[in-house]
Design a protein that fits this description.
The radius of gyration is 18 Å and the shape is globular. It has twelve helices and ten strands. The chain has a single domain, classed as Aldolase class I (TIM Barrel, Alpha-Beta Barrel), CATH 3.20.20.70. Helix content is 49%, strand content 16%. The structure holds glyceraldehyde-3-phosphate, 1,3-dihydroxyacetonephosphate (13P) and zinc ion (ZN).
């Protein structure tokens, strides 16, 4: 089975990105792992600090290890938006393949210092480290930034050289959640190209990459949801970013949440006599699996 390092190298060489999908319970993790197997592609199973608080760190690791046994294609367990050295260390010690240290809300120097500390510890254990420079607009776990601050290419280069991270998340206009581009920020592919000129063949990570499908929003809203003016990243732009750039990892959380909620709203309404929770959760799992498989193909440069 390829190590996570080899999988990133393959992305750079073959011009595609791996999907990094956030899980929050058993069904969402099953959906990610099953979609990876069905698409015959590696997947990254991401868990945020708040999802760790919800599931429990050791439970999440055990779930991942049990479910990913006997898989034919690689699956990696990744800490999403670790905000401190301590949480990254806990994840590394618990057996994660990869951690993200998110010092993006700190000053440049503080971010470098914190990231370097995590890299030093992780490298000894062979754990992959993602850093972040530049701030994404919107809700970012504990980070809530009102303005989008695009990454500065020179700063990204300096950050990577000083910290020796294995990959870097950059801000090019995307944001977390279901209301993207609300501050009129644009997707700045020119910034991405500039970064790639300064850091050739270096793995880049794109956060906030959900496409927030209008049909799913409508399905939620006609069944009592109240998601007004939701907006996501354009699918075609996303495909180009994966094919023509060095983006090797694309993060998706919101789209999985949306199909989960849409499915629950629909099945709860359509099966009023059903009281077996497994029925509703199985349907929701299938919806999550379908959207994850679509993303895997999209990030591979294939439209369905
Ligand atoms: O990038 C942020 C993720 O969407 C995590 O969100 O902290 O609610 O799990 P969460
Ligand atoms: P979305 O909110 O666009 O799904 O982004 C998720 C993400 O970046 C997780 O780190
Ligand atoms: Zn993110």
């Amino acid at each position: 089975m390829d190590s996570i390092y080899v999988s990133f190298e393959k992305c750079l060489k073959k011009h595609y990105a791996m999907g990094a999908f956030n899980f929050f319970n058993l069904e969402s993790l099953q959906a990610i792992l099953q979609a990876g197997e069905e698409c015959k592609m590696p997947v990254i199973c991401s868990i945020s600090e708040s999802a760790i608080q919800y599931i429990g760190l050791n439970t999440a690791v055990m779930m991942f290890e049990t479910l990913s046994q006997n898989k034919k294609y690689p699956a990696y367990l990744h800490l999403d938006h670790g905000r401190s050295y301590e949480i990254c260390k806990k994840a590394i010690d618990a057996g994660f393949d990869s951690v993200m240290i998110d010092g993006s809300s700190l000053s440049f120097d503080e971010n470098v210092k914190l990231t370097k500390k995590v890299v030093n510890y992780a490298n000894k254990q062979g754990v992959f480290v993602e850093g972040e420079i530049g701030v994404l607009a919107g809700n970012e776990d504990n980070v809530n930034n009102l303005e989008s601050r695009y990454s500065n290419p020179e700063e990204v280069k300096k950050f990577v050289e000083l910290t020796k991270v294995d990959s870097v998340a950059v801000a090019i206009g995307t944001s977390h959640g279901a209301y993207k581009f609300k501050y009129d920020q644009k997707l700045r592919i020119d910034i991405l190209s500039e970064i790639e000129k300064l850091l050739p063949k270096f793995p880049i990570v794109l956060h906030g990459a959900s496409t927030v499908d209008k049909k799913t929003i409508k399905q939620i809203n006609i069944r009592g949801g109240k998601l007004k003016n939701a907006k996501g990243v354009d699918k075609n732009e996303l495909m180009i970013i994966c094919k023509d750039h060095n983006v090797c990892k694309v993060n998706v959380d919101t789209d999985i949440r949306l199909v989960f909620i849409a499915s629950l709203r629909q099945t709860l309404r359509s099966s009023p006599k059903e009281i077996n929770p497994r029925y509703f959760l199985s349907e929701a799992k299938e919806s999550m699996k379908t959207i994850i498989a679509e993303k895997i193909f999209l990030f591979k440069g294939l439209k369905n």
